[in-house]
């Protein structure tokens, strides 16, 4: 017999998403931006699994979506961090604001 | 206050607190450590949602691979940015306004939805059926195409990462 | 069941009856039984390490034609106790500038990650810590907690050698996880479940007969995951002054030490579970205590082979190690996984002799083919001549 309302999970996931969003928008260090991005992806996973667990447990689309989010998060963090390290080697900085060669 | 509610409140508060520490602490290595704690907290929440497979997958993929990558990146780019200067950029107040606005907006919108506070679960006590998930992945009328596309994505990420890593040593064409 | 044929279940039943007689409610009873079981298992693992330390030191002594420890007690049996006394009473020196939380958490994580594996191993037809439906994935996840311990130790020590050592150990650990996970899929395929109890229960024919190449790859990867020779590059005195362990003294170093030895034995337990049929043997279902005996014997054989390789082989260079993993083990693991999956579906399910024969032929073809390919590739590399009379040089 379950006693946790679904709203708790959803509010938690919105909160985690907003904290990750703040990290992405407001931090200078590029690696810190990637960390905020990971928080946002985790919040999305919690949201999807909460809906799956409470409402749509017999369909598999929720779980498939979560698996794809895991795979995409792993791929983008690997490539993103490789790009940051490569850019650091060229320009000797990790501050995102200073990598502004393309700025018009 | 049932025990499950107490467990959830404890885990959720620890996770949110460490997420706040991730985005606000000065030393990058500590931010990475708080990130690991957040990821473990989310894994426990997955277990509370009766999804054991994704609990373990979260630990293997996020803590065991992505967090280690983040730690490597932190350690390899250590001395570049001094940890005494402010960590937030100039527009941090816009960011905080936007996030608080988003949070309150979403919560207010969702409160109008009647099923928002349901406590009844559709999932059985055994958790997910992995065999069904496996079948869904390879069923042409199921999710085979997203599965294949994700495989191509992972292949592209693999090739891209190898190329980025190799370009200093003369490149790969 | 009586005490002789099934000691653990008998004791558990007796204790449960006793505690229920004292009037505990059902969920508290369950919780208490699980807690007692967990504490007993962890303590058993830790105390068993004492014996393992003696076995290793005596064994390495005999392999190197010297007596090994023989002063403290008969055959040196109390030597580990002397070691323990020394380690307990040494001063815990904390260098200046360490990051306090990672520095102190590292030894704990390394030992905890090893003991947690004991929770999912089936010791018996009736005894196992817990039977999660994803036991094999749990083992992989626990490996990543051990990697965290290595990073924390390397960073927290505020020492460049520790950091470099931990980088190398980490590269080795995450590289060798890839073929390990790929190869672990083969017993999962053959038994249809990831739970370790089901993997053991379905091994009417041992998995090592059906997939010897997979067993070989798994054995090598387990040795590399444990940083055992020949993969102990990162903690060798001649390489990097002891790597991650540099700044740890006293009991904290003792934790690293215990973690290393216990992981070797846990590795043997895992291999025996997944590939050698665990506790299975004649009459193991009727008399569960025989399950303990068979499991113990199989684990000791695997552990002895592990020690044998440790004492006999020189260590790899880091580039040799990485090349071995990515150029040989991972492609081999991928090929054996795909071909075993194909063959598993092609061969009819009911005839064990045909299946065993088919799988063995496949594995032999794979091994022979890869060795021929390798020897042909290796013979093309130019052999560097550093002296007038040709002297042997490590080519790869």
Defining key terms:
heterotrimer; A: 104 residues; mainly alpha; Helix Hairpins; 3 helices; B: 173 residues; Four Helix Bundle (Hemerythrin (Met), subunit A); 2 domains; 69% helix
Please provide a written account of the structure.
Chain A is elongated, with a radius of gyration of 17 Å. Helices cover 74% and strands 0% of the residues of chain A. The N and C termini of chain A lie far apart (59 Å). Chain A contains three helices and no strands. Chain A has a single domain, classed as Helix Hairpins (Orthogonal Bundle), CATH 1.10.287.3510. Chain B folds into two domains: 82 residues, Four Helix Bundle (Hemerythrin (Met), subunit A) (Up-down Bundle), CATH 1.20.120; 45 residues. Chain B is 69% helix and 0% strand. Chain B is built from six helices and no strands. Chain B starts with a helix and ends in a 7-residue tail after the last helix. Chain C has 396 residues and is mostly helical. Chain C has two domains: 89 residues, no CATH class; 285 residues, no CATH class. Chain C contains 14 helices and no strands. In chain C, helix 2 packs parallel to helix 12 and helix 4 runs antiparallel to helix 5. In chain C, 39% of the residues are buried. The chains are: A mainly alpha (104), B mainly alpha (173), C mainly alpha (396). Chains in contact: A-B, B-C. At the B-C interface, helix 2 and helix 3 of B face helix 5 and helix 6 of C.
Examine the coordinates and then state which fold CATH places here, giving the name of the CATH topology of chain A: Helix Hairpins
User: Can you tell me the CATH class of chain A?
Assistant: Mainly Alpha
Mean pLDDT of chain C: 86
Q: What is the total domain count of chain C?
A: 2
Number of strands of chain C: 0
Largest sheet of chain C: none
- Report on the biggest sheet of chain A: none
Oligomer status: heterotrimer
Could you say which structural class the secondary elements and strand pairing of chain C correspond to? mainly alpha
Query: Helix- and strand-based class of chain A?
Result: mainly alpha
Determine the number of helices of chain A (DSSP H or I, runs of at least 4 residues): 3
Q: Report the portion of residues of chain A in β strands.
A: under 5%
| Shape call of chain C | globular
> Which runs of chain A of at least 5 residues are low in confidence (pLDDT < 50)?
none
Q: In percent, how helical is the residue content of chain A?
A: over 70%
Number of domains of chain A: 1
Radius of gyration of chain A: 17 Å
Name the shape of chain A in a single word: elongated
Low-pLDDT segments, ≥5 res of chain C: none
Question: What is the total tally of β strands of chain A?
Answer: 0
Following the backbone from N to C, one meets helices and strands of chain C in this order, namely: HHHHHHHHHHHHHH
């Amino acid at each position: 017999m379950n006693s946790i309302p679904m709203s708790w999970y959803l509010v938690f996931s919105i909160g985690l998403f907003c904290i990750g969003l703040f990290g992405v928008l407001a931090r200078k260090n590029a690696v810190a931006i990637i960390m905020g991005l990971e928080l946002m992806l985790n919040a999305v996973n919690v949201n999807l699994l909460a809906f799956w667990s409470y409402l749509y447990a017999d369909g598999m689309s929720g779980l498939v979506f979560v698996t794809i989010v895991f795979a995409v998060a792993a791929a983008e963090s690997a490539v993103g961090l490789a790009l940051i390290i490569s850019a650091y080697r060229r320009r000797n900085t990790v501050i995102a604001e200073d990598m502004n060669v393309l700025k018009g | 206050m049932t025990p499950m509610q107490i467990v959830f409140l404890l885990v959720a508060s620890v996770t949110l607190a460490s997420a706040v520490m991730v985005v606000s602490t000065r030393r990058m290595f500590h931010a990475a450590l708080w990130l690991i704690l957040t990821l473990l907290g989310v894994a426990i929440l997955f277990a509370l949602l009766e999804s054991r497979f994704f609990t373990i997958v979260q630990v293997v993929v996020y803590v065991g691979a992505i967090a280690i990558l983040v730690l490597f990146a932190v350690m390899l780019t250590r001395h570049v940015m001094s940890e005494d200067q402010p960590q937030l950029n100039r527009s941090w107040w816009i960011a905080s306004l936007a996030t608080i606005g988003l949070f309150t907006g979403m919560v207010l919108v969702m409160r109008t939805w009647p099923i928002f506070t349901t406590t009844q679960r559709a999932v059985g006590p055994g958790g997910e059926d992995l065999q069904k998930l496996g079948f869904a992945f390879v069923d042409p009328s199921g999710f085979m195409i997203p599965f294949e596309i994700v495989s191509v994505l992972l292949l592209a990420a693999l090739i891209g990462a190898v190329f980025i890593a190799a370009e200093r040593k003369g490149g790969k064409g | 069941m009586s005490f002789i044929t099934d000691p653990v279940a008998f004791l558990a039943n007796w204790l449960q009856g006793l505690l229920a007689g004292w009037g505990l409610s059902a969920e508290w009873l369950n919780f208490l039984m699980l807690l007692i079981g967990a504490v007993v298992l962890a303590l058993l693992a830790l105390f068993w390490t004492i014996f393992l330390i003696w076995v290793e030191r005596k064994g390495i002594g005999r392999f190197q034609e010297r007596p090994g420890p023989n002063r403290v007690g008969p055959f040196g049996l109390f030597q580990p106790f002397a070691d323990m006394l020394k380690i307990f009473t040494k001063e815990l020196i904390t260098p200046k500038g360490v990051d306090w939380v990672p520095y102190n958490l590292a030894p704990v994580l390394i030992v905890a990650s090893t003991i947690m594996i004991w929770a999912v191993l089936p010791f018996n037809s009736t005894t196992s810590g817990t039977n999660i439906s994803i036991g094999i994935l749990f083992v992989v996840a626990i490996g990543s907690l051990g990697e965290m311990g290595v990073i924390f130790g390397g960073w927290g020590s505020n020492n460049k050698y520790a950091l470099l050592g931990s980088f190398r150990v980490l590269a080795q650990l995450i590289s060798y996880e890839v073929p390990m996970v790929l190869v672990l899929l083969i017993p999962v395929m053959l038994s249809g479940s990831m739970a370790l109890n089901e993997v053991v229960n379905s091994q009417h024919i041992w998995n090592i007969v059906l997939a010897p190449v997979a067993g070989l790859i798994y054995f090598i990867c387990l040795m590399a995951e444990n940083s055992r020779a020949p993969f102990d590059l990162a903690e060798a005195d001649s390489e990097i002054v002891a790597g991650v362990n540099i700044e740890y003294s006293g009991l904290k170093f003792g934790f690293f030490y215990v973690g290393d030895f216990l992981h070797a034995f846990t590795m043997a337990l895992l291999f025996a579970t997944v590939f050698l049929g665990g506790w299975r043997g004649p009459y193991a279902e009727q008399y569960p205590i025989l399950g303990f005996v068979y499991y113990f014997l199989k684990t000791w054989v695997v552990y002895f082979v592990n020690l044998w390789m440790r004492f006999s082989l020189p260590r790899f260079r880091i580039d040799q190690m990485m090349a071995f993993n990515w150029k040989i083990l991972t492609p081999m693991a991928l090929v054996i996984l795909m071909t075993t999956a194909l063959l598993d579906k092609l061969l009819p399910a009911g005839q064990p002799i045909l299946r065993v024969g088919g799988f063995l032929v496949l594995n032999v073809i794979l091994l022979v083919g890869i060795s021929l390919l390798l020897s042909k590739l290796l013979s093309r590399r130019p052999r560097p001549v550093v002296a007038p009379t040709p002297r042997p040089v490590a080519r790869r």
